[in-house]
Write a structure and sequence with these properties.
Distance between the termini: 13 Å
Shape: globular
Order of helices and strands: EHHHHHEHEEHEHEHEH
Low-confidence stretches: none
Radius of gyration: 17 Å
Number of helices: 10
Strand content: 15-25%
Strand order of the largest sheet: 4-3-2-1-5-6-7
Largest sheet: 7 strands, mixed
Length: 218
């Protein structure tokens, strides 16, 4: 059976929302206004992140330097990546955040993992964000996790999703198995989505070790 695991990044692979940390450091405090609108469901991330990034000041080098100060991975993520490789499980990162810190993370930890996220570019008149994974028919999420999960479902027998919050809502609706923590647990319960609660990637490693054992004896 072919399997794929799609992982959220902010608050899941790393311990905090890196995009929020960047905005706190480099953007006018008005960015919180657009964050509140997004959390209330009044605007999608396509609108909110564009407005938030427009409030940013600072150079690319300054942002990267700050990213490296605040970005801390789940202590078991490296072991999780090795497990996926050993068991032949396809792994990808699916994030409605920014490519600047995901690329920096993968470079720092020497990991070769496919990722889907939003693109941050530093232009003469300031930072700009683009949405290469936008669903043109909907336009709500800058990175449409719903579409990405469905594309993987068409290619793999079983697709797992790992997440922690509001940006993972639509992906969780279509994934075959959902690993959830923090706010995503509440979302799954509100929408009657079955989920497996986890604290860190050690819990997910243990799940797959047991799952593979059951497949062998089954």
């Amino acid at each position: 059976m072919s399997k794929a695991i799609l992982c959220d990044f902010d608050g899941t692979i790393v311990d905090k929302d890196i995009i929020n940390g960047i905005l706190d450091k480099f953007a006018d405090k008005k960015w919180r206004y657009y964050e509140d609108l997004w959390e209330q469901g009044k605007v999608g991330s396509t609108q909110s992140v564009e407005k938030q990034i427009a409030l940013m000041k600072g150079t690319e080098d300054q942002v990267i330097e700050y990213i490296n100060k605040i970005m801390k991975p789940d202590p078991y993520f490296s072991d999780f990546v090795k497990m996926c490789d050993k068991k032949g499980i396809e792994l990808a990162i699916v994030s409605d955040g920014l490519d600047i810190y995901i690329k920096e993370f993968l470079k720092n930890y020497e990991m070769d993992i496919r990722y889907f996220t939003n693109k941050l570019e530093f232009e003469d008149d300031g930072p700009k964000v683009t949405c290469p994974n936008l669903n043109e028919k909907c336009g709500w999420c800058c990175t449409c996790k719903f579409n990405i999960v469905n594309k993987y479902k068409a290619a793999y027998d079983k697709v797992y999703y790992v997440g922690d919050g509001l940006t993972d809502k639509h992906a969780s609706q279509v994934a075959d198995v959902v690993f959830a923590k923090k706010k995503l647990i509440d979302i799954c319960e509100q929408q009657n989505i079955e989920y497996i609660e986890f604290d860190d990637f050690k819990d997910i490693i243990d799940y797959f070790d047991e799952d593979m054992y059951e497949e062998c004896i089954g």
